[in-house]
Amino acid sequence: MDEPLDLSTYRGSVRIATEAMNDPIVTPASEIPTDTLEQYRNLLNTDVNEAFTVWTRSYNNLSSGGADAFVVLAQVISEAAFNHDIIPREILGTGGASDFCEAVISQRNYWFYDQHPSLIYAILTIIDGIHLAAASIARSTGDRTITRHPELVHLVGVLATSAWAHRGIFVDGGRSDGYCIGWAKALRMRMLSFLPLMYPCIIETSDACMDYSRLVILCWYHSPDSASADINFSNAFRHLPPRSAEEQTTTGPLLDDDDLEPEPVNPNYNSHRVAWLFTQHDIIEVYGLENFLRRVDATIRQPLLRDRFLFLFLQNIEKWFPHPQILPRAAASGILTGLRDAVERQALHGEDGFQWLTTVDFMLIAQFVSALLPAADGAAYVIRDCAIVELLARGTRLAAHLRSTEPDSSAVEQRDAYDSCILSLKRFSTIAQAVNMRAGKNNLRKILRQAMRREWYPTLLHIRDVQTLILSNHRAKYTSLVSAWKTFGEVVGMDEAQAKKDHDHKVKRDARFCSWADCQYHGSPPPNLLACKGCGEVRYCSKSCQRKDWYNGRHKLRCRRLKQT
Questions:
Q1: Domain span including residue 538
Q2: Is residue 299, in this structure, part of any structural domain at all?
Q3: Which residue has the higher pLDDT, 261 or 418?
Q4: Per-residue CA distances from 553 to 390, 514, 533, 545 (Å)
Q5: Which string of DSSP letters, residue by residue, matches 153-207?
Q6: Same domain, 505 and 543
Q7: Per-residue pLDDT reduced to its tens digit, 333-357
Q8: What SS3 state is found at 494?
Q9: Fewer CB within 10 Å: C terminus or N terminus of the chain?
Q10: Does 164 lie in the same domain as 83?
């Protein structure tokens, strides 16, 4: 079973989630008279228990004039749903509030979804507040999961199923906008803010899981301007099992079964075809292939898709990317280059702890694409447009570091750093050898060999430098990693002695100039030069140029700094 995430250990991910939700949800103006709202606000502020009593009683008396009080109090309570000074968390976070909201949603033949959008919005906000209160109570007792609140789990399941059944309220131009333009978007954004929080509860029940996935896709697809929708896209697939190896044209979805331990999935599923069928029937047939691919491409290029969110995106890509209608469009749709850019974005601007995880995921995707697609859309595209040699070099350097100083790695325990990298190097060595056998004037061969000349020897030198840090129980695999990288270059004709000579000459030449390409001293010797303390190979005329070259010049990705990356 997939455990709820403790994002507190991923500070960058918490910042991203907060930033993604920074844009306030804009709702149309309330139609309730101001003096009426103030009357019930005063009641809530002076006697919160009485306010909730009046609220529940008015719901039970809807047919005899209680509707007005119920609607007004719903809005008033929703305004304070996240303020525990006004509404103590015990009132919302215990079973009574969950049970009542579940009754409001599900009773009277789902009367709730036929009401004014302002009431629907208020109840959704209160449910969000219930979740916050329950989570706060759980944390205060040392219990870091909310899934031990059965009332909340059941409420979330009912909400997912019923909201999907009445999904028209979230679509622009539908029933909600019939009251006032903007209500559909407001309801959709409210649901988007709550969907990620629903996930730990959703996986506790089998009945609502598929409707939850459909709801995530619906809100994501219709919210192209929402960063929150983009970074949480993978929640639609996380609980779905990957297809079994027997159903693949290869030995596994994106990799061999032994290469990677898959993410735990909902044990209620007995079919490994669920994710495949979901992609076909609930995405492609509903939204259209090209529309879906365009929306995915925009999601991949979302600047906030990094750290844990990018990691989850890549972890779950095997559940939809190999679909026979999607995979052949990997190059033309821009998805592959978008993923490559996302991995680059992570390396430059994300948390270092996720750099290896996202790098190795793309390496596995690239080798899968290269193996299954024709050369023009597969291996050639990966070499030419995705700069795979550079990424393999970076992955090899990271792999050498990840197991160098810690016998047990927490962030990378889902991967064996050496095995994953060695597997990729072996498979791309076969591809590189075939490309190198092409005619000397072949453009792809030239691109491959040029990339190899830039990356091969510096990386070989780098991973050999790490040798003194390698723990004894990792020495054998480390030796295999060095051997795999050495072979990768040798199959295309790299000679170590000549490569060392060329490298030393370049280092000596570059040592005369500032390494920042836009500096006036990049082509002429400056008065003074400072060496990079990480690698000692590049020089800068100032700290300003060094800072610019670290990110904009991407030296961060090439520096041979001997420390845990």
A1: 511-557
A2: no
A3: 418
A4: 15, 12, 17, 10
A5: HHHHHHHHHHHHHTGGGGSTTSHHHHHSTTHHHHHHHHHHHHHHHHHHHHTT-SS
A6: no
A7: 999 999 999 999 999 899 888 888 8
A8: coil
A9: N
A10: yes
Main-chain dihedrals φ then ψ at residue 540, nearest 5 degrees: -140, 150
pTM over the 0.70 mark: yes
Say which residue the tokens 């990288």 belong to: 485
Structure tokens at 274: 């669920």
142, 174, 182, 153: which is closest to 30 by C-alpha? 182
516 and 498 in a single domain? The answer is no
Exposure letters 135-165 (e unless 16+ CB within 10 A, then b)? bbbbeeeeeeebbebebbbbbbbbbbbbbbe
CA separation (Å) from 527 to 288, 507, 509, 532?
Answer: 61, 19, 16, 17
pLDDT interval class at 262 (50, 70, 90): very low
For residues 156 and 150, what is the distance between their CA atoms, to the nearest angstrom? 10
Between CA 470 and CA 449 the distance in angstroms is: 30
Residues 207 and 60 in one domain: yes
483: Cβ–Cβ under 8 A, 6 or more apart, which residues?
none
Amino acid at residue number 444: L
The answer to whether 213 and 221 are in contact (CB under 8 A) is no
Q: How far apart are CA 108 and CA 34, in angstroms?
A: 30
Nearest CA to 543 out of 553, 557, 555, 529 is that of 529
Residues 490 and 530 in one domain: no
Nearest alpha carbon to residue 438 among 375, 494, 488: 375
CA separation for the pair 194, 200 (Å, rounded): 12
Please name the amino acid found at residue 480.
Answer: S
Is 144 found in the same domain as 102? yes
As for how many domains the chain has, the answer is 3
Helix, strand or coil, per DSSP, at residue 113: helix
What three-state secondary structure class fits 212?
helix
Amino acid at 38: E
Structural domain includes residue 326: no
